[in-house]
Design brief:
Blueprint lengths: L2 H14 L6 H16 L8 H21 L1 H17 L5 H20 L3 H7 L3 H24 L8 H13 L7 H11 L4 H27 L2 H5 L3 H28 L3 H20 L1
Length: about 280
């Protein structure tokens, strides 16, 4: 992992984490295309690459925390006073409960998929196929939303469906934001509300994966030997790009269809699947 590769992956992570095009898929594509360009064997597992991927996600997590800092504060405050005063009626209290419940559901689904997900990192052709499926789901959910009048409130039912979608997105190629927003649309949520809830729901999962993996699977001496200049540079870039992406994506999704991202996922997925199958 060198500096240029890390910065490129930081840009890709910052853009693709919040756009419904699968950040994990694009990190896989970027890493493997870079290896092809540099003449490095594609099937080459590296803990530094996996750790860098986690750090890039941490960069975009920081972007989410900063952008939604007011909403996060209100949710935490509502949970505290709701439990203290035994008043569970506020919208922010319910939202906090949905996020907690959604996180539990996500972990229950994603954990058994971890081993499969890790193997797919080095099988970009399969990741490409999953990205194609993401694209079709986005197109279907948009078509569904146009035929049904969506509500703006988040309910227990649609929060559970969104959490299930987030759990399945543990597999690279299944876009986390794409699947969760699509699930929100299919369950009756307004597009803007679904997007904001998707971002808030991502916080505990990204935080948890960023904290657990380094302590469980990495040796201290191995971590010290990593190229930290490259890792830090990529993390900072992913955070900065991610913040800008959140800001403008929320404006976009409030006015325009997500179909363009669906078409992009289908085209990018087909191209990648064919390229790495032949390569």
């Amino acid at each position: 992992m060198d500096l240029i590769q890390s910065i490129l992956m930081g840009i890709v992570q910052g853009l693709s984490e919040f756009l419904p095009i699968s950040s994990s898929a694009h990190l896989v594509f970027t890493s493997n295309f870079y290896k092809v360009f540099k003449g490095i064997e594609v099937v080459h597992e590296s803990n530094q690459e996996i750790f860098t991927d986690i750090m890039l996600h941490l960069g975009t997590l920081i972007a989410v925390l900063i952008f939604f800092r007011k909403e996060i504060f209100e949710i935490i405050k509502a949970l505290y006073f709701g439990l203290k005063n035994k008043d569970y009626s506020s919208r922010d209290f319910k939202l906090g409960v949905y996020i907690i419940l959604g996180t539990i559901i996500t972990v229950a689904i994603a954990y058994p998929l971890n081993e499969i997900a890790g193997g797919l990192v080095f099988k970009p052709e399969i990741v490409g196929i999953l990205l194609v499926l993401t694209g079709f789901l986005l197109l279907f959910s948009e078509a569904w939303a146009k035929r049904h009048k969506n509500k703006t409130d988040i309910t227990l039912k649609n929060s559970i469906l969104v959490a299930i979608a987030q759990g399945l997105a543990a597999l690279p190629g299944f876009s986390r934001s794409g699947l969760t927003i699509a699930a929100g649309l299919l369950s009756g949520m307004d597009r803007s509300v679904a997007a904001r809830y998707s971002f808030l729901l991502s916080i505990p999962i990204i935080l948890g994966s960023s904290m657990v993996y380094p302590f469980v699977k990495l040796d201290f001496h191995e971590v010290v030997a990593f190229n930290w200049t490259a890792i830090i540079a990529g993390t900072v870039v992913s955070g900065l790009v991610g913040y800008v992406c959140i800001k403008y994506f929320l404006k976009f999704v409030a006015k325009f269809s997500l179909a363009i991202f669906g078409y992009y996922c289908i085209i990018a997925g087909i191209f990648t699947a064919i390229f790495f199958t032949i390569y």
